[in-house]
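Ticket opened by: R.M.
Priority: normal
Category: complex prediction / small molecule

The reporter submitted a protein together with adenosine-5'-diphosphate and asked that the result be attached to this ticket for the collaborator who will pick it up next week. Submitted input follows.
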Amino acid sequence: MSALVVTGTDTGIGKTVFSAGLVQALGARYWKPVQAGLEEATDSEVVARLSGQEVLAEGYRLQLPASPHLAAEAEGVEIDPAQLSLPACDGPLVVEGAGGVMVPLNRRMLYLDLFARWGAPVILCARTQLGTINHTLLSLQALRAAGCRVLGVVFIGAPEREVEDSICLFGKVVHLGRLPMIPGLGKAAARPGRAAGSDALARAFATHIKLDLIREVP
Ligand SMILES: Nc1ncnc2c1ncn2[C@@H]1O[C@H](COP(=O)(O)OP(=O)(O)O)[C@@H](O)[C@H]1O
Ligand SMILES: [Mg+2]
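Result attached by the on-call engineer:
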């Protein structure tokens, strides 16, 4: 296993928290190709705090909390996919996209085009809340149509077995586990220093995420 892409059905669904748990479990490096929004803790900072692992520098750091293409344009910049090759890395690398799979990087390219270009396996994060079947099935269809290799879906939230099973049935996709909500994790991750939630996240990962399926990836 070298690089793993973590994407999701939407923004704010727990991709960064899941990425932090994965980085911690695999002893991996983390890379955020485009960080749009610098006012609050960045995804790289949150992952570093929650995982205790070093993170790589972002490809682009943009001030505006907006879609990458708009955040770049606001600074008179165009995101160049040639600048976003997967960084060389000794061990496993966890790469987190932004928002969902069809978020534009510039006026010609969406995130899923970049994932397909990399050829790296993709983990799709999905909420368990109402509405997720539609969002997840559409995201799977879009990823596959773009030529991405989908490793499976990780659910985030309270258990919804029937919903999770329906997604796996219609989406013909592997269930890689469900990360429950961990109380107080957000506040802990927002403070500088190694977060108090790290151990709880590691325990939740060990219990709920099928790491063997993720580690097996060639
Ligand atoms: N498993 C979880 N347990 C507790 N809080 C979580 C969990 N997943 C996400 N959150 C919280 O939800 C918010 C959004 O999560 P985040 O990982 O940043 O989402 P995304 O990367 O998809 O935008 C954050 O405040 C985060 O702390
Ligand atoms: Mg994130």
